[in-house]
Amino acid sequence: MRKPRISGLYAITPDLSNTGELLKKTQQVLEGGTQLVQYRNKSADDTLRREQAGLLLQLCREYRVPLIINDHIELAVTLDADGVHLGRDDMSISDARKQLGQNKIVGASCYNDLELALRAQALGSDYAAFGAFFPSTTKTDTVLVPASLIGQAKQKITIPLVGIGGIRLTNAATVIQSGCDAIAVCNDLFATENSAAQAEQYARLFTAHRSI
């Protein structure tokens, strides 16, 4: 799959041990217009993580949507997934790029740190993720990011910017209007009864904003 420029709705999977339920909900968010999926399961063991990631990759390929893996670059390499997302304590961006090659996506969490985002860009990251924009139930040890930081980042950074953390339909427009190219959402997509309809509403927010 050709590496796309990151934009639009970016779905992050929740910690689900029920693989059937995970696939069902992920298919719904893909049908709703998700542009990128990150497999993230902090509670799974290696066997379950590999099984779920492999099945999700097959599903995402059917929709021609990239699947990237949170943290576990060895899993991304083994499965030939479309990339990896790295946090501050994970493998370095440059080492990940060496292992994955230029055609895979490498994304980086930059929290509320503009200097970290500049380093990520210099090391070859494909996007810089800033957050949390709002208090998050997925990650509780976060720092809050003011929307004004995105304006500052836009003046210095050319790679896509991703807003993350506590984003819901009720506050997503604020993050998009701040200048983020993509918004990463977990609970508000996967914990709803109709995830396809929810994803469609997020996709429409981007359409509305970009038509202004």
* Element string (H = helix, E = strand): EHEHEHEHEHEHEHEHH
Overall body shape: globular
Number of strands: 8
Residue-averaged pLDDT:
94
Helix content bin: 40-55%
Chain-wise SSE layout:
Blueprint lengths: L7 E5 L6 H13 L4 E4 L6 H17 L4 E4 L2 H7 L3 E4 L6 H8 L4 E7 L2 H9 L4 E5 L16 H9 L4 E4 L7 H6 L4 E4 L1 H4 L4 H16 L2
Parallel strand pairs: 1-2, 1-8, 2-3, 3-4, 4-5, 5-6, 6-7, 7-8
Q: How do you describe this structure in short?
A:
The chain has 212 residues and is an alpha/beta fold. Helices cover 42% and strands 17% of the residues.
What does this structure look like?
The structure is a single chain. By secondary structure, the protein is an alpha/beta fold. The chain contains 9 helices and 8 strands. Strands 1-2-3-4-5-6-7-8 form an 8-stranded parallel beta barrel, surrounded by 7 helices. It is globular, with a radius of gyration of 16 Å. The mean pLDDT is about 95.
